[in-house]
Design goal:
The complex is a heterodimer of chains A (281) and B (339).
Chain A (H helix, E strand, L loop, with lengths): L8 E10 L6 E8 L2 H6 L7 E6 L3 E6 L10 E6 L3 H7 L6 E8 L5 H4 L3 E7 L4 H11 L10 E7 L8 H9 L4 E6 L10 E2 L2 H8 L6 E6 L2 H13 L7 E4 L15 E2 L2 E2 L6 E3 H5 L6
Helix pairs in contact in A: 6-7
Chain B lengths: L2 E5 L3 H9 L3 E8 L2 E6 L18 H4 L3 E9 L4 E4 L8 E6 L1 H13 L4 H8 L1 E6 L25 E6 L2 E6 L2 H7 L9 H16 L10 H7 L5 H5 L8 H4 L7 E8 L2 E8 L20 H20 L9 H5 L6 H9 L6
Parallel strand pairs in B: 2-6, 6-7, 7-8
Antiparallel strand pairs in B: 1-9, 2-3, 4-5, 4-11, 8-9, 10-11
Chain lengths: 281, 339
């Protein structure tokens, strides 16, 4: 972070990838304008940034790239409001700002030597992509034991990063379970069913394991009991929360749950931590 | 502690001396209210006031403030940060409750260069409250009508003069070459009497003992619905609160140039927490009002080990529906535990 945490780094949009068939999700590949900024920007999977569009404001978005990928940052953005709509309409080559990295990260130290189960739903898969790319990197793969992914979306066309999913599917150092709620494609090669059901079907043990869970509230609500049933302790069920944010550094006051600020003390919390907080999220 | 005295009639000329070195903010009368403003001459300041309608928090945390301006072209993005004001400033006549509020701000704005620079550049000369008002309850939240916490100098009214308590080294420097006399025994005795009388005149306020635990265990209590039914959600309590520090950040742009500014915001407004997805974790007045109380009497204690309220009473005086924070807190503290 620079001395003044409110100042964004200027970045150029190198590439825009439309991720979903409804065209509501695009991935923005960003490159730093200044070499010094790039060197100063050190992040860990699970963190987020404020993307800054001049005249439109800022939006908090999880970092989808992995620090093992050099020379660019990836952000996958859902078109929802004024700033995201503006960003979606920008062209490659355009300049925006990035402020961060912000927040905490997934518990990488604690997860060393453990099995890691990654569960994602819909477009809440961005920092999970970062995590998988990070773990699969040759430098890191030996630090973790079995890696298992359960990822689902409403339909095949709404899955993010489909090319990478297909590549991971072919590897033998990660177990991949892709699922959709429904499809009319008779040749769909993967699972059909909701994420909690597929998790229940595929995941039989919690031994020596951590679970990273990101998805819509309804998915989390029904996945939690499945994980608890196979013995995941609340300390080892890890989630990333969303909240309206502005400053991103725990000052402006809006993203708190109890005495914790999601921007600064989160966005990553264990279920055990969340159980200690008021149910106001 | 070192003490000096100053005659009331010499205050204006003392301020004139300070004005040669400092930008001085002092209470002045404006449209039948008293507000803190930068003064040009010592005679502009009024000493005849109980407290200002607005706390002086805006001097360190302006209601609107430019964070930076920018100019962008297709290939460049230039950002300019406004320069910090070099001239030191001084708030004269701040009340002890408001001076204490900046100690909370010091925690809340940790890491914020705009606040930190201004704070380091600002001295606080407070005047104790000889006549605490009915809504005042500073004594029950750790302060007092003559609390020196947060102040550099504290003035205590004793007849036709003030006793000056020198609280910090920076405060002592203000009096160098002033020629003010050391306080005599009579002045000290009289000051003690004034303090005692003022403290004794204060109402019961609120019971802090066990309050945090009670609040933490009553988060889901249906009493919050009842307590907040008449709240309009206007947010005046937060705007006038010397410890409320929440802000919004917005862009004002014209073509390729613009500025990012921050503006006071309020947890009492629905948009404060409304997410782009449509989810709002604090969807009704009940949750928003509860947030305000919890933040001050539970969360800030958890985070900073300090109560987030200085007992200035502004939220009581100015609430359009007479919601009294003391009564709210009292009701909660008397709740039976929910089984």
């Amino acid at each position: 972070m620079p001395d003044n945490p409110y100042l964004p780094y200027p970045v150029r949009i190198q590439q825009i990838i439309t991720e979903t068939e409804d065209r509501n999700l695009k991935t923005f590949k960003l490159g730093f304008l200044n070499k010094d900024d790039e060197e100063q920007f050190k992040y860990i999977p699970g963190q987020f940034c404020e993307l800054s569009m001049a005249g439109k404001g800022e939006i908090p978005i999880g970092i989808a790239s992995s620090p093992t990928e050099k020379g660019f940052l990836l952000f996958t953005v859902n078109k929802t409001g004024v700033a995201t709509k503006y960003l979606h309409n920008m062209d490659e080559g355009g300049i925006i700002g990035v402020r961060g990295p912000l927040g905490n990260w997934f518990p990488w130290k604690e997860m060393e030597g453990k099995n890691v189960l990654v569960i994602g739903g819909g477009f809440a898969f961005t920092t999970l992509r970062s995590s998988i790319v990070y773990m699969l990197h040759p430098e890191n793969r030996n630090r973790f034991r079995d890696i298992t992914l359960v990822y689902g979306a409403r339909s095949p066309g709404l899955l993010l990063y489909r090319k990478e999913l297909a590549e991971w599917e072919k590897r033998n150092d990660i177990h991949v379970h892709i699922t959709v709620d429904a499809t009319d494609d008779p040749d769909w090669p993967y699972n059909v069913g909701f994420v909690p059901a597929v998790t229940e079907q595929k995941i039989k043990t919690s031994e020596n394991s951590y679970a990273l869970v990101c998805g819509p509230p309804i998915m989390i609500k029904f996945t939690q009991p499945v994980l608890e049933k196979v013995g995941f302790e609340p300390e080892r069920i890890i989630m990333s929360l969303e909240m309206r944010m502005k400053c991103g550094i725990g000052i402006c006051g809006r993203c708190n749950i109890g005495d914790k600020y999601v921007c600064k003390d989160g966005p990553v919390f264990s279920l055990a931590q969340l159980n200690e907080l008021p149910k106001e999220y | 502690m070192k003490t000096k005295t100053i005659k009331k009639k010499d205050i204006a000329s003392f301020l004139d001396t300070l004005l040669t070195r400092y930008e001085v903010f002092a209470p002045v009368e404006r449209d039948e209210r008293v507000v803190f403003e930068a003064i040009g001459a010592g005679s502009e300041a009024t000493l005849d006031y109980q407290n200002t309608t607005m706390p002086p928090k805006g001097i360190l945390f302006p209601q609107t403030e430019q964070l930076f301006s920018y100019r962008s072209t297709k290939d460049t993005a230039d950002i300019a940060v406004p320069s910090f004001k070099e001239k030191p400033q001084l708030i004269f006549g701040i009340r002890p409750c408001d001076a204490r509020s900046f100690l909370l701000f010091d925690h809340a704005f940790d890491g914020d260069p705009y606040y930190i620079n201004r704070r380091g550049n600002t001295l606080l000369v407070s005047i104790g409250c000889t006549h605490p008002q009915a809504p005042c309850f500073c004594t029950s939240v750790g302060g007092g009508p003559f609390s020196e916490e947060g102040s550099d100098l504290l003035l205590i009214e004793t007849g036709d003069q003030y006793l000056i308590q020198i609280v910090t080294d920076r405060g002592a420097q203000l009096l160098e070459e002033s020629g003010f006399k050391d306080a005599g025994k009579d002045a000290l005795t009289l000051a003690q009497k004034m303090i005692k009388t003022a403290e004794a005149s204060m109402g019961a306020g609120i019971e802090i003992d066990g309050l945090k635990e009670k609040l933490d265990s009553s988060f889901e209590n249906p009493i919050w619905q009842e307590l907040t039914e008449k709240c309009l959600g206007c947010g005046v309590c937060t705007y006038l609160c010397p410890t409320c520090h929440c802000f919004d950040m917005v862009d004002e742009a014209e073509g390729s140039t613009g500025e990012r500014i921050r503006i006071w915001d309020s947890c009492q407004f629905p948009l404060f927490t409304l997410q782009a997805s449509g989810v709002n974790p604090r969807p009704t007045v009940k949750e928003r009002f509860r947030q305000r109380i919890m933040h001050k009497f539970s969360y800030m204690i958890e985070s900073y080990n300090q109560i987030g309220c200085v007992g200035c009473g502004r939220c009581i005086t100015e609430c359009p529906v007479n919601l009294d924070i003391r009564q709210v807190v009292h009701t909660i503290s008397k709740l039976e535990a929910l089984s």
